[in-house]
Each structure stands twice: as C-alpha cells, then as structure tokens.
Amino acid sequence: MSQPLSGRHVALLLGGLSSERDVSLVSGRECGDALERLGAKVTRVDAGRDLAQVLTKLKPDVCFNALHGEWGEDGCVQGVLETLNLPYTHSGVLASALAMDKAKSKAVLAAAGVTVPGGGLFNRFEAAADHVMPPPYVVKPNAEGSSVGVFIVLDGANRPPQDIVAPEWTYGEEVMIEPYIRGKELAVAVMNGKALTVTDIVPRSGFYDYEAKYGDGGSEHILPAKIPLKTLAKAMELAERAHAALGCRGVTRSDLRYDDINDILVLLEVNTQPGMTPTSLVPEQAALKGVDFDNLVLWITEDAYARGAAGGIASFSETPG
C-alpha cells in the first residue's frame, strides 16, 4: 500500500497512569502498527509525568494520543502538548476536561438540548449509607471511563453498593448517581463532526462492563442497530450535537441508552479518546462506512497535523525537511 506518512515522526502516547492503562496499551499497539504500515517513524511513549521532557527530546512532527482515562483523556496531557506547541490527535484541553467530568458535561449537554439522565453528584459515604433515590439506579465515578467502578442497583436492593466506601476505592469522594434506563446500550461514533452510524451493544453478561467491552466475545455489536429509523436518526443527531456542544474535534464516541418499551433515548456521555482495540466500536463503524482501520488512523493523524499547520507547522502534503 502507499505510505502517505513516509518520513514523518509520530510520537504514539500509550499506557499512562489511569485505571484504563491496559486498554490504552492495546489501542496503542494497534494504532502504532497502522502508523508504521502507513510509513511513519513511530516512537512509542509510555506517557508518565515526565512526558514534557521526553517529547522535548524527541521533537516529533505530531503526537497520536492513544491514552484513555485520567491524565491522558481529561485535558492534562492535552495541556502539556499545547505548552510544547505539538499537534496532537483528538479533542483539546477544554473539551477533554469537560467530557471527562460527567456532572459538568451533563450540564453543558442539557443546555444544548441533548437529553441526558437525571441524578447528580453525591458524597460516596452518603450514597453508601442509604438509597439517595429509589432503585433502580446507577452509581459510577464522576471521572472514569470503560465502565470502571460502575454499579447497577436493581429494584428490591436492600442497600446501596458498599464497594464505594471500601479502602480500595480510588475514584474520588463524589459519585454520580443516575436513574437506571432499561433497554438497549447504543453507541454513535462522530468523525469530523458527522455521525457514522448506531451500534446496538448486546453484552454476554447482561451488563456492558469492562470485560464485556474488552474481553474476547464479551459483547455482540449489531450495526446498524435494529431500532426504528427515527430513533436511529435521533441518536445520531444527539451525538453530533453533543460533540459540538463540548467543543470536540477529530473522532468521538457517544454512549446512549434506549428504552424501546417507553421510547426514551438519553445520552450518557461522550468519549473523546474512544478505544482503538480489535473489539472497539469506532473502527467497526468506520469500516461500515468504507474506512478501514489504517485509513481511520491516517485520517485522525492528518486531522491533527492539519490543525498544527494552521498554527504555522508544515502540512503532511509538503515534502519532509
């Protein structure tokens, strides 16, 4: 195949410091292999607190951010890259920080006309002492991804989950508690501001948890989702509106719930660094639209570099110096 990134140096950021480190390593491996097939010189960087010093020495043309979760997805790494004046993939500082904070992003999305679940933030000890809302409801960290630390409290539950006050809990003093929306788990990828399609995720375990997301055969992905056309169109519209309202760029993935009995569709959150693993949703949706994995990685990289060009950095179309 042609090598459109020939001669370009890409720093691939992976691993990192969050609870989603293992997922990031897999995303990074897949994206790094694709970048090399595209002809790039790839330096894999396990993004620790010394990232600025490492990148200052490397002097890459562009950074491909394959990090997930805290530090890599919440605006912190993006701030480092802005300071170094390096082009980087995915969303910027503000959009990344907003999307990662579930409470703040819900406020912005609701103001933009995006239907979101109710609920709010509660101290974890208060939430563990007694039900703060009638079951069923969902308890989750305010700033984590990949369904880490998520609990569903079903009808008839005697008490809230006690895991949130266990010594091992490291996800903050406040938890987000929302009404549980029964029905389908949907996902919509947005690329360059446009929704690709809708995936219906059917977890083997009954809950789309970490294992269902990343385990081999953990869930079945049906795309396009077999839902009413008006609901499919509405899900895509909500994802596009959410992407724009938060100020996202590049590729994002919105997660939604659809109660097909009561015809209720809500957007749960926007992921600014969607997974790029073999079981990930965004590559599947792109492939359905005729964009294979390598070309998806190419587009993400070129999109980042084009923004750098607007700031005075040479574009990929120019001859490498």
From TrEMBL:
- Cofactor binding: number and manner: Binds 2 magnesium or manganese ions per subunit.
Top-rank taxon of the source lineage equals: Bacteria
Q: What residues make up the catalytic site?
A: E20, S146, S280
* GO annotation, cellular component aspect: cytoplasm
Q: Which reaction does it catalyse?
A: 2 D-alanine + ATP = D-alanyl-D-alanine + ADP + phosphate + H(+)
SUPFAM superfamilies according to UniProt: Glutathione synthetase ATP-binding domain-like, PreATP-grasp domain
Record-listed E.C. numbers: 6.3.2.4
List residues binding Mg(2+) 2.
E269, N271
Its required cofactor(s), as named, are: Mn(2+); Mg(2+)
In alphabetical order, the GO MF annotations are: ATP binding; D-alanine-D-alanine ligase activity; metal ion binding
Q: Which residues bind Mg(2+) 1?
A: D255, E269
- Identify the residues that the record assigns to the ATP-grasp domain, covering every copy: 106-302
Chief place of localization: cytoplasm
Instruction: List the GO biological process terms.
Output: cell wall organization; peptidoglycan biosynthetic process; regulation of cell shape
Pathway(s): Cell wall biogenesis; peptidoglycan biosynthesis
Give the matching PROSITE patterns.
ATP_GRASP, DALA_DALA_LIGASE_1, DALA_DALA_LIGASE_2
Answer yes or no on keyword Nucleotide-binding.
yes
Q: Where in the cell is it found?
A: Cytoplasm
Function noted in UniProt: Cell wall formation.
Which HAMAP family does the record cross-reference, listed alphabetically?
A: Dala_Dala_lig (MF_00047)
Tell me which family the UniProt entry assigns to this protein: Belongs to the D-alanine--D-alanine ligase family.
Task: Note the PANTHER family from the entry.
Answer: D-ALANINE--D-ALANINE LIGASE (PTHR23132), D-ALANINE--D-ALANINE LIGASE B (PTHR23132:SF23)
The name this protein goes by in its record: D-alanine--D-alanine ligase
Source organism (scientific name): Phenylobacterium glaciei
Taxonomic lineage of this organism? Bacteria, Pseudomonadati, Pseudomonadota, Alphaproteobacteria, Caulobacterales
